[in-house]
Design a protein that fits this description.
- The chain has helices spanning 2-24, 29-53, 63-84, 89-107, 118-138, 161-172, 199-207, 212-240, 244-255, 259-264, 271-277, 280-301, 304-317, 322-339, 349-370, 386-395, 401-410, 417-433, 436-447, 453-472, 485-488, 490-513, 518-539, 555-558, 563-575, 592-597, 612-626, 631-640, 658-661, and strands at 146-149, 152-155, 181-182, 185-189, 560-562, 581-584, 600-601, 645-648, 666-668, 671-675.
- By secondary structure, it is mainly alpha-helical.
- It has a five-stranded mixed beta sheet, covered by helices on one side. It has a three-stranded antiparallel beta sheet with strand order 1-2-5.
Amino acid sequence: MRRIRFASAAVVILASWSWLARTTGTAPVAAFALTAGFTVACLVFGEWLAGVASRFVAWQPGVAYELLLGFFFCNTLLFVLTLASPLGIGTHVVLLGASAVACAVARRGRRPVPGRTLAAESGSLACIAFTALAATLWVRDTQPLMSVVDGSTVFNVWFDVFIHVREVSAFAQSHGLQSISDIKLAGVAAPAYHFASYMMPAALDALTSVSALDSYAAFQLPFGILLVGLAAYALVAVTLKTTWPAVFAAAAVVALPDAYQQGFGVHYLSFHFMSQVNLGMLYGIACIAMAWLFMIEACRRDRVRGIVASYVLLAVCLTYKAHLFVANAMILMLYPCLYFGRGVERIRWWGRAMVAVALVALFVGVVSFAQMSPRVPTFRLDGSGVGPYVQILMGGFSDGWLRHAFKWLYFDHSLPRAANAILAASLILFGSFGLWIVVAPFAFWKTRRVADPRAWAFLSIIVVNYMVMSTGLALDQRGIGTPEEFVNRPQAWAYFVVVAFVAGIVAVSVADRWPIPRGRSRLLAGCLACAMLAGVFVEAHKLQTFPEWEAYAEYADFNVAPTCLVRSAQYVRDHGRLGDRMQDSSFDPQMVATAIAERQSFVTRAGFGGNLKLVSERVDAVKAVQATADARALGAWARANRIHWYLMHPEDSGGWATHFLDQAVYRCEGFRVFRFGS
């Protein structure tokens, strides 16, 4: 088994190296060493945590499971240190590495983790290899991320990338929480957000020659896809006590077409699109899957420690994807009321009911208290959001007979309210899960005597919870994010659960009914894997575009910038000091300049959240400066606001004196970069 475990680690390290090489066009040794060291540290801590968890997770699914545990331990610890300590992320990485070495030495000579089997380790290796290949194919548009077309730079990714990249560089340069500003407004405290997935890309940016933009494409995105595949494998393997069906479950999640790709046409409910565009979703899914793994196994074996571990991971999920924390908090609290202590006679139904009522009251009270804060999105279960949400979904519905039929029934006819509710629920259900929601009841009926009923109960709970949220919640009215976030974002998690468990249970049933000789099964598995990967290769092209919206059908339509703007921002990155502030004369609405320059902006007009009044005040101040011809006044203003760089667009140079324009430290086709101070 030791060779298999070594091979699994080697696959992850080689995959990380290939992502770095494809993104940067080189093979940066320091970046490769850092990712390899991080992988080894995750495995060291993962083995230790798997040993601790063996008290309530008896069946160990192999190195994939340990890699997941180790990743969330290492990455979350790095996140906590980055917020709490002023030492900087480089020092924190060294401390993490030293701790991993100490842990490895302390565990040397100890007996292996109980419950390991050769089949589980082999399945784990197969899962890692397949998921790494699938992740590599999914991100082929983004490696490399930029291309120059007719004098403009096209970014082959959704435009949210610049927010992610700016957050990466903010953490790369941070020295404790007090040093992290709102990326739109220098000197303003950063708002609450799920930041934890930025830690390893930030380490790459801070400690190697890899830029924040490249670290997003070379690590953050593909590694998130890898984690989702490993999470599907671990969750199904532990819940169903099986190995190779769990490998198929992971392959189904990361490689098979989602509902949109199957032809159901609602792009805004596409699992692969939404999970990769909302990057924290990948990490949040993997984290909450581990929380459910511990919860299901703890309730099966009546282990309180497992429930505590589950709740710890639920809290950790808040730092990776807050929407998934909200979608799972109440049902994770209530799950033990259904299944924990079945073997303990004194826990009667009325006792469970009383605990459940108390927990629901606690949840409602916490939500009601949180709603008193204007910085918390609207969270109200009154059914008022379903109508506007259906209109949003229709805006991204592919043209075809399904769209015309739904429009004819829902919008063109005055049907009873109940009929419209059924139509809306059907659109969301089939648009989210596609054929999987059709296969699920059939699979349940065929496997009702052999499959673990807890698996079907878990799947049903997740689907019902998702449908209640998507059809029952109000849209956000406070402008924290997009209005439909709590209604829409849990879809990716629900899809993950449905596909993983339906695929796993179907695979178990097929293996029991029609056993295949080993030689033929390997050939069949190889052919199936190749077919799945070929499908990924086709579907991955232009994945992060939105063809239903004309302005978003091609990357060149919506995510393009003048090449000289990009080069000017790169000049600031290469010649600036850490901690410098910059200002873009056009207020950088998509954060292209500040993301590539990796410097804090004095003010941007990016269209999301924040202190809009302060944004307006600072914009007015910058406009007043742009209109002045007094170089001394300009310099005084820059010093007063600690602005070190000013990036001027060609159309914004009208008010400045010619002799001052000539003082630019960098010029490129009308773009000018000015440096203030030493």
